[in-house]
Amino acid sequence: MVNLTVVPSLLACDRSGLLSVLRPLLSACRVPRLHFDGMDGYFVPNLGFCPQSLHDLKHALVREKLPVPLFEVHLMVRRPSRFWKNFADAGAQLISFHFECDDDIAHLAQELSRNGLASALYLNPETAFVSCIPLLEHFSLLTVMGVHPGFCGQRPISAIDEKIHAAANYRRRNGLSYDIAVDGGVSAENAPQLVAAGADFLIAGKAIFGAGNPQLAYDQLLLAARVRHGSCS
Ligand code: DX5
Ligand code: ZN
Question: Is 183 annotated as catalytic?
Answer without folding.
Answer: yes
